[in-house]
Amino acid sequence: MEYVCLGCGERRGIDELLYTCPSCGGVYLLEDLDFDKLAALRTGPEWRALFDARAATRTTALRGIFRFYELMAPVLEEEDIVYLGEGNTPIVEAAPVLRDAVGIPFAFKNDGQNPSASFKDRGMACAFSYLKALVRKHGWDEVLTVCASTGDTSAAAALYASYVGGPVKSVVLLPHGKVTPQQLSQPLGSGATVLEIPGVFDDCMKVVEHLAENYRVALLNSKNSWRILGQESYAFEVAQWYGWDMKDQCVFVPIGNAGNVTAIMAGFLKLLRLGIIDSLPRVIGVQSHHADPVWRYYSQPDPATRTYAPVTVQPSVAQAAMIGNPVSFPRVKALADSFIAEGGERAFCVVQVTEQEIMDAMIRGNRHGHIACTQGGECLAGLIKARKLGLVSPGEHAVLDATAHSLKFAGFQDMYFTNSFPPEYGVTPDASLANAPALVVSPEDKARLSPEAYTLAAAEAVVARLGLAKKA
Ligand SMILES: *Cc1c(COP(=O)(O)O)cnc(C)c1O
Ligand SMILES: [Zn+2]
């Protein structure tokens, strides 16, 4: 395998952990030099049969994202592969009532059911497997992994580092007060060194880039192309779940640093090139109006004159995607171009949604049995917006990336239910959806009554509240 620079095209070997091109500063993609040989090795149907058979394997190394080993990082030895149960996350079709209300069949892929409760585990499993291989090869006695994070990258990095242990140590840099309490508890629980600075994610990113350029640290942000590689597994799983038939499928992905959306496009392109699928799905990126540089770029109609500019982010409930200057933007452009070249003009687009739409969609989704985080809500809002704009038709089916577990973002649900959003978010809750616990017996009554009388009083209070009818 080799690193290929998207800026100047220069290639380098993978003996070293590289993030950006030393010649031009561009970002890398990893390329398997033997990829064309894979096409000669097996036909499309033979690859499908292999991956389908592997779904039943008991070999730990091939149970997670490395079910698709040959498509991912076929340079890694089995002993180096780190498996914490990531990947193969469920795809849950929308509850019928919700599906009918939205007007198009769709499903959530629950990437919040990964070990650290977000899709970031896919990339970390690959990056840490590679790191383990490097440590073994070079006999390093200490490797300091660092990342900037909107919360989930650090949770995943800290989890995998603590599992691998030995020389591998984890340091995470967070924007102070800009990650949820649940997300903060994760790297703390894994024993990482947690450092904070005032500001937003983009500020943290500049600091770790400076560190990676000048000091001996292993950067685990999505500039690290090993992470992008691991995240391609999402595309492989979607294709496999739908019997390798991607016709009329639209895959919705929230865009923050743009690592995930590019990984997913890269994954589908690989499947197409090997004849494992015979058409691409459409990929539709979603951004909040409070952090929308990629949408702004693609909303300029003429591809020849589009210009990219970072934006200053406003507070967003889709906090994990609240990024004004995505490091993977050059990757988006490269992959969107390939996607459109192979799949036509409609194969890739980006829609913009409001904070209000994101919250309404998340609450609605979860009231119908889903477990979407705010970014998953962003995808549902994106689908509703795309329907309104006529970008998707009722004959299509959508797969929405619920990128993290709803529990990580419980605070935003709480603000919705208690109507306590700070004004910057611009979210007014639908009061009919508010939900709150009701205390039916006072602590004073509990203190006053005997245990038996207290149970009876509590039961009677429940009966009165629910208006229960007595059994005949
Ligand atoms: C990181 C993250 C995103 C954004 O993904 P990018 O690869 O940065 O575009 C979206 N949702 C969740 C839950 C995340 O953790
Ligand atoms: Zn370069």
Automatic annotation (TrEMBL):
Domain (Tryptophan synthase beta chain-like PALP): residue spans on this chain: 84-399
Transmembrane feature ranges: none
Protein keywords: Amino-acid biosynthesis, Lyase, Pyridoxal phosphate, Threonine biosynthesis
Pathway: Amino-acid biosynthesis; L-threonine biosynthesis; L-threonine from L-aspartate: step 5/5
PROSITE patterns (alphabetical): DEHYDRATASE_SER_THR (PS00165)
One Pfam family it belongs to: PALP
GO MF entries: threonine synthase activity
EC number: 4.2.3.1
Keyword set includes Amino-acid biosynthesis: yes
Entry's family note: Belongs to the threonine synthase family.
Protein name: Threonine synthase
Species this chain originates from: Nitratidesulfovibrio liaohensis
